[in-house]
What we know:
Two copies of one chain form a homodimer.
Chain A: H1 5-24, H2 27-34, H3 38-44, H4 48-67, H5 78-92, H6 101-104, H7 108-135, H8 140-164, H9 167-182
Helix pairs in contact in A: 1-2, 1-4, 5-7, 5-9, 7-8, 8-9
The structure holds a DNA duplex.
Amino acid sequence: MRVPSRAILLNQLEAVFQMRGYEGATLTQLAEATGLGKASLYHHFPGGKTEMAAVLLREAVARLEQQAFSRLSGSQPAPERLAQFVAGFSDYTEQGERNCLVAVLAQGSAAEIHGNAIASQFDIWLRRLAAVYEETGSRPKRARREAEALLASLYGYLLTTRLLADTGHFRRGLKRLRKTLTD
Amino acid sequence: MRVPSRAILLNQLEAVFQMRGYEGATLTQLAEATGLGKASLYHHFPGGKTEMAAVLLREAVARLEQQAFSRLSGSQPAPERLAQFVAGFSDYTEQGERNCLVAVLAQGSAAEIHGNAIASQFDIWLRRLAAVYEETGSRPKRARREAEALLASLYGYLLTTRLLADTGHFRRGLKRLRKTLTD
DNA sequence: GTCTATACACCGATAGAC
DNA sequence: GTCTATCGGTGTATAGAC
């Protein structure tokens, strides 16, 4: 396998933060998940947990962009692009199996560091979604509300899937959501 | 003041758990928020953080029942009752200012203790919501999906409101949601 | 680049005086 | 019912050998 080992390492670390949250992820758990010793983690991330979270956050935003939001700019009709975006979001979360790190890092003490960056990133995303809704004929204000409703639904399904401990809930919910978008 | 001081104490503790999460809420912070010493907290909750979380969870479920779900059983038309339920949920979260403790305790290490109870409680809530949707003419399967979509939207708005750091987002979203229910 | 061993702060929790 | 003082354990982080 010629997969950059750095990517594997980041994926393993991300899994711990997703499951335990920022405060809940201890260096012992992060070390176990990666198969490295604590000191070795500090070789890769001299800044410790703080740096890990910062790197993983940038990485998560980039992946969301690539897998979901990039599908908003295409040649298909606007509703079809929105449905593709929802499908991309599902891919990003691995069909609801994994949480979104952006949401994870917006809570607790991590929010004090990353809160502003996350808030402005979400506003950018909402503008892009709203622009697509405007193509469907909605006026700016209404388009913004529709964009907000869509993101709330996506993150809502992601959250309630955890509350219900059932990823089938996520898959069915997003399927339904895609259908309402293309009707 | 003739307000039961126990209620004030619980409210102060709940605020810390809501803002910092279960792991993030330290005894030092809990003590500071209540104006008590750590040892005094152990007088009220001999089981420590574990007991606080358990008591607060029961209390939160009871308040959700009282403020939101109880409005599903009334004499008005089903859509109107659903809108009332949404309004009650808004009250419960103080218009998005405060997070839902049930959602907070479904994450990290607290999930290992309370996860099962939370999952079955949410299933009960979904059944009650689905029953109301059935009154509007939806078949059981569809009613269940509509119930899931409604809860996902509510908790989604609560989450994205935190991501955006803007409670106006929550108020507008729920207003919009109520409107779609009664149309 | 990985390890063992360790430093030191803070965590949850308890003892015991008042 | 509240406090101060303190315990043992674990958290993050570092030193230094290999």
